[in-house]
Specification:
heterodimer, A: mainly alpha, Rna Polymerase Sigma Factor, Chain: A, about 70% helix, elongated, B: alpha+beta, Protein Transport Mog1p, Chain A, 8-stranded antiparallel sheet, 8 strands, about 40% helix, about 20% strand
Chain lengths: ~190, ~270
């Protein structure tokens, strides 16, 4: 390697390597398969490295890397022809609107605070990818609407609509789960 | 319940602090009198907080994943500079202990699992055309002026010079462009529409046509090689311009797409 090649590699690692953990966690949430997540992270780094000359120092490296990650994920999913729908969307939405229509709180009001991270993660991972990715980008990884829309290659209005619907689905799923588990305010654990 | 009586979407915008002052005051006023919406906001707020709790800033990738990544980068360096010694950079070597990874011990194994990059922009280019035709591809700048769009890209957004062609004489009007990504590479994208409802998307990115997959028709005109692919109802024409690859995607007649590509390439 020439000196400039060596410098490019060093600069790339400085920018990209600290993001590897977050990228892997997101890939795992998207694919739900460690092997697939590993493949996607590897390909993301390789593509980012090949185009690193285009990356302007000081700009948003996180948004850049996550955009590539999502592009890699989408391409792979298209090639594999995979679609997912793990939860009954209409049923969950109906439950959400039923919940939103009641004035509450009732004596056996669900206490979301008793839910554990693993339970929240499982509920999120059960959402269809379109909704899951909106929550992953905006709420979990805390990207702006604009950054998330760019990464997911959709208009901001579409991103917002998916995000709002995703939160309602997630809230309904968690409410349902908490009630089944008996996580109520009258039964503090 | 009549959902229109309650500001459901505004509750989420409130949550994301994206309401202007007037809307904020209006929603707060509603909340002060509506227990349903207070309850809904509380549930949404908790859901958002729970999702944010899944963000682990100190999360690390498993060692075998990190090893695969570094092995892939090493392989890329060797491919780019075949004569180079395939050693890791000094900075990389310093980063590894921080990641807690015994790379030296696992790189040899990781190389076994190394997979080719599989760069294939053809499907992306076809998908982009479909999204543009169905009005689901947002443009960063809407303009009919090619020079304005070239300046937009040149203002620090695209690192290479772009050339936005005027297809007006062929009855296609420029509608705008965006800084885009084609299978992981930064691209300058510009879009055109005809009065009869046809669509064209051109993209320019750094690379070589030699990276493109097989399965193309080859046409040579005035010393320029055009590689023509069909993806669904789209025709994609790729050609090389110095260090850049240009692709023109059209949902019209394949012969017409090649004619447009020739016109752009030979200007």
């Amino acid at each position: 390697m020439t000196r400039s090649d060596t410098q490019k590699r060093a600069d790339f690692e400085t920018v990209a390597v600290p993001l590897m953990g977050a990228l892997y966690q997101t890939a795992l949430s998207l694919t739900r398969q460690p092997d697939d997540a590993s493949d996607i992270v590897q390909e993301t780094f390789l593509r980012a490295y090949r185009t690193f000359d285009n990356f302007r120092a000081g700009t948003n490296a996180r948004a850049w890397m996550f955009t590539i990650l999502y592009s890699v994920f989408t391409n792979r999913r298209k090639k594999a022809g995979r679609e997912d729908a793990n939860v009954p969307i209409e049923e969950l939405e109906a439950k959400y609107w039923q919940f939103a229509a009641s004035a509450g709180p009732s004596p056996d009001e669900v206490d979301f605070g008793q839910l554990k991270s693993a339970e929240v993660e499982a509920a999120l991972n059960a959402l269809p990818e379109t909704f899951r990715s909106a929550v992953l980008m905006v709420d979990v990884n805390e990207f702006s609407y604009d950054e998330a829309a760019a990464a997911l290659a959709c208009p901001v209005g579409t991103l917002r609509s998916r995000l709002f619907r995703a939160r309602r689905l997630l809230a309904a799923a968690l409410h349902d789960y908490a009630r089944r588990e008996g996580y109520t305010r009258s039964k503090e654990r | 319940m009549n959902r229109t009586n309650h500001p459901h979407d505004e509750l989420q915008l409130l949550l994301d602090e994206r309401l202007d002052a007037a809307a904020h005051a209006r929603v707060e006023a509603h909340l002060s009198t509506c227990s349903q919406c207070r309850r809904e906001l509380e549930a949404l707020r908790w859901t958002q907080r729970a999702a944010r709790g899944l963000n682990r800033p100190d999360a690390t990738a498993p060692p075998e994943v990190a090893a695969r990544v570094f092995a892939a980068l090493d392989e890329e360096d060797r491919r780019a500079s075949p004569s180079a010694h395939p050693e890791r950079t000094q900075r990389g070597s310093r980063l590894l202990p921080a990641l807690g990874i015994a790379v030296a011990a696992v790189i040899a194994l990781a190389i076994v699992f190394l997979r080719p990059s599989g760069f294939d922009p053809t499907q992306n280019a076809a998908d982009d055309l479909v999204r543009y035709a169905t009005a689901t591809l947002a443009l960063d700048l809407e303009t009919k002026n090619p020079q304005e769009l070239e300046q937009f890209f040149a203002d620090g957004r695209i690192a290479f010079p772009t050339r936005v062609f005027d297809f007006g004489m062929m009855n296609f009007e420029l509608t705008g462009g965006r800084v885009h990504d084609i299978d992981g590479r930064r691209s300058a994208l510009f879009a055109y529409t005809s009065a009869s409802g046809g669509h064209i998307i051109c993209q320019m990115y750094e690379g070589g046509v030699s990276e493109l997959p097989d399965g193309f028709e080859r046409h040579v005109d005035d010393g320029i090689e055009f590689r023509v692919y069909r993806r669904g109802t789209s025709t994609l024409v790729f050609w090389q311009e110095g260090p850049l690859v240009c692709v023109l995607a059209s949902d019209g007649d394949p012969g017409e797409a090649l004619a447009f590509a020739r016109a752009k390439a030979q200007v």
